[in-house]
Amino acid sequence: MFGEVETRRIISTLLKNEYTIPQIIKESKVPKTSGYRKIENLILNGLIIESGKVLSESKKISKLQCVFQEIRLDIKKDKFGIIGIINKKMFEKSTSMKSIIELSE
What we know:
It is a single chain. The protein has 105 residues and is of the alpha+beta class. The chain has one domain (5-104): Arc Repressor Mutant, subunit A, CATH 1.10.10.10. The protein has five helices and five strands. It has helices at 5-16, 21-28, 32-44, 88-93, 95-104, and strands at residues 19-20, 48-56, 59-66, 68-75, 80-86. The strands form two sheets. It has a three-stranded antiparallel β-sheet. A two-stranded antiparallel sheet has the order 4-5. A hairpin with a 2-residue loop joins strand 2 and strand 3. It is globular.
């Protein structure tokens, strides 16, 4: 996922602030169709989560944010590593983070 430019733009946008999906697409300058698909994939993988709801045109829509506060990619000849800093509140909400801990135990 991190190798794809549009996905990186979406994640970078959500590292700065929490947004609704239309705001994410606007701020990250990602095309609408692929943006919705990539955001859905990031949600399903637990890398972005719902942080609240806002009222928009008389209906509630989700605000999203990245579970990470900071992400560093480490790319070497035959290795690829991701270093992510996450606060405890986000860690407890993310399903993917729980899966990672369960695997390492």
